[in-house]
Amino acid sequence: MTRWIEDSSMEAPEGHRWERPAPDDCPACPCHTARVCETRAWARAERPAYADGTPYTVPCPCMTAT
Question: Both ends of the chain: CA-CA distance in Å?
């Protein structure tokens, strides 16, 4: 997995913008990122939602496995 560190002090010499890549998805569930499930930080994460914005109502398999 790739981990990124944001450093806003670096300026792009060509004038482009530095943007952070999307976080890695959890390989065991469709509702959280890998970091949330690895650290079991479900309470601090935002409520998962489907791509159209409706709330994810199925229990997270990672949460129920612990």
Answer: 22
